[in-house]
Amino acid sequence: MNALWDEIKNKIKPALPKNSFSLWIDPISCLDNEDTIVLGCPNRFSKNWVQENYLDLIRDKFNDAGLGHVELLFKVERQKRIPALSSLPPDPDQLTLPSLPKTRGRRNLWLKSQFTFDRFIVGQSNEFAYSASKSMASGDPCNYHSLLMLANTGLGKTHLSQAIGHRILEKNPSSRIFYMTAEDFTNEMISSLRTDRIEEFKKRYRRCCDVLLLEEVHFLGGKEKIQVELGYTLDALASDNKKIIFTSALPPKDIPRMSKELTSRLTSGLVTAIADPDYNTRVQILTEKASVYNVGLSEEVIHYLAKRLKQDIRQMESALKCLKARAELIGARIDMDLAKEVVSALVSGECSITTEEIIKLVCGYYHVDREKVCSKSRKRIYASPRNIYTYLCRHHSDETLAGIGKTINRSHSTVLYSVELMEHKMKTDRNLKHQINFLSKRLGEMKK
């Protein structure tokens, strides 16, 4: 397979500028090919860039070589020589939570150093959430011990959640803080049940926790046993006046198959929402992020980006990283022309796909009636195409969540849940991922 990959690279070489080929394609190696062709990239940035810009080209060359449609998987290639852990300097971007037991490589041991209150950009859309978070972290007199922050992906709820953890540790380094996602909590509980350590699990969260930072509670929809256990844990923490901070993309009442009991517990304290940043806030965010990334931007470019990048903070960060990469790797000058080029890759233009075109494609591909997809039916034969439709609309059209929901008689919360459900399933369901990638490619062809 290594010989074939070298041949594929030779075929790709004439199709790309010399600098682009040597920078992105040439360093890639072939790691494995049992069921899936695994290509190793030198670092995470390279992996993401190749997937976003050259995936179709590479797949076409494999097809030309007679392999037909192949499944490609990109990984960051492990370095052959790894220094001993004791010789590595501490990662400046992460801080250890000293009060947690360091066992089994738990993922809840870390807070990102940049997620502090000082680094959070406050605007009209997030002012109340910021004030509430800061008040809870500072121990100001208040009559609530739990906080639920509601926001779509990429609007800062994780930043505020971790900022609370940082501030509490500053005031009391011995605080026992548990930071994790609802998925982490679920996986740990399942593991504890399988290994007959459920009592140890209960003790850890009910008696050995001063502050619980639980992210993405919408993940718990439909997980009845996990909801029951979490409910008991929350009751134990609340009775001892412990601090509890939740984040979610959906209000608990809109999370499918969320029990009334857990919904009541999640909303028993303060509930606050973070909306999309307004124009002035986007200008502040871009200015601050540009300074952090050391990207020199003119006022004209900043305001242009603020006008065009309205989705979320991650979209703004992606634009700044692209500008920085172009400037550093190929010596491009960061001006309006380059800004427009980068934005055109992130924001749909005049030839964006409509929801009408997407639903026709999905119904035709799965051979289902449009009326059934838009109905209240929960049969899998209709629910699956409906969820895929929402995912494709979210990623290939300019329509809002509410607008997408109207086309299938659903609320914006249900649409958001469907999109996140598809993103989660695609990580483990190879067949589903293949179908969505195929439909995405078809939509990409329709834009041209």
What does this protein structure show overall?
There is one protein chain. With 448 residues, the chain is of the alpha/beta class. The model is unreliable at 80-94 and 98-109 (pLDDT under 50). Helix 11 packs parallel to helix 13 (336-346) and helix 17 (401-407) packs across helix 18. Strands 7-8-9-6-10 form a five-stranded parallel β-sheet, sandwiched between helices. A three-stranded mixed β-sheet has the order 1-2-3, covered by helices on one side. A two-stranded antiparallel ribbon has the order 4-5. It has four domains: 2-76, GMP Synthetase, Chain A, domain 3, CATH 3.30.300.180; 94-98 and 106-273, Rossmann fold, CATH 3.40.50; 279-346, Helicase, Ruva Protein, domain 3, CATH 1.10.8; 355-447, DnaA protein, C-terminal DNA-binding domain (Chromosomal Replication Initiator Protein Dnaa, Chain: A, Orthogonal Bundle). The protein has helices spanning 2-12, 18-25, 44-67, 127-138, 157-171, 182-194, 198-207, 224-239, 260-266, 279-292, 299-308, 313-329, 336-346, 355-366, 370-373, 380-396, 401-407, 412-425, 430-447; strands at 29-32, 37-41, 72-76, 94-96, 110-112, 146-150, 177-181, 211-215, 243-248, 270-273. Helices cover 54% and strands 10% of the residues. Strand 2, helix 3 and strand 3 form a beta-alpha-beta unit.
